[in-house]
Amino acid sequence: MNPIDTALQSVTPTVMVPRHEPFVPLQANGHRFLAASDGLWLEARRPWLYLCWPLVRQEKVAMPYGTLKQTLSAVPVKSHLMDEFIIMAQEVYPLECAAWVVWDEVTDDQTLLPMVPTSATVASVVFQRPRLQAGQHLLLDLHSHGQLGAFFSGQDNRDDRGEFKLAGVLGRVNTVIEAKFRLCANGLYVTLPDRIYGQRPQTLERTYERAFHPF
């Protein structure tokens, strides 16, 4: 086999799910593909994430493999950081803004890290990605849409394609705030529950806790 193919398959293998013994989940950080009785699945582990999710389902061909359980488990985002981002988005309205929620696997602390824009308009925001310290992880990538509704654009899809992270967008931040969230998994996008919020900060905490405990 070509050495490049050997290296690629060793880093991201495809594993047959056993039919007659228990499936052993991925233990180390990384990701792999799983051939199951009903199709092809993606399995990924990060310090803050475990994912086992179908990519292609099929029932026509009998596959001699076992079954899998759809699983998504992630570190929950602290709700007060969402409150901080809402204030940040309202302060720069009608321009867009962006921030990261960064999680430290050693201390278990979470921090809202505002992105310094190189340009910001009512329809876009551009920034240079910061360098995180060892043990720090991008947990949630946030941006606002000012007066527009909440949605993930084609540019968002391109930007998020090669990453494992949670992503969120807030829309209509000057009125009743819309919010959309998803898990980005190397080009797979798993939609998380949408939310619409009023502007009273005291009502946000419980709602955001529900938004980030959907699993």
UniProtKB/TrEMBL annotation:
Name of protein: PRTRC system protein A
Q: Which organism is it from?
A: Noviherbaspirillum galbum
Q: Which residues form the JAB domain?
A: 80-175
A biological process from GO: proteolysis
GO MF terms here are:
metal ion binding; metallopeptidase activity
- NCBIfam families linked: PRTRC_A
Please provide the record's keywords in A-Z order.
Hydrolase, Metal-binding, Metalloprotease, Protease, Zinc
Ranges where the DUF2016 domain occurs: 2-72
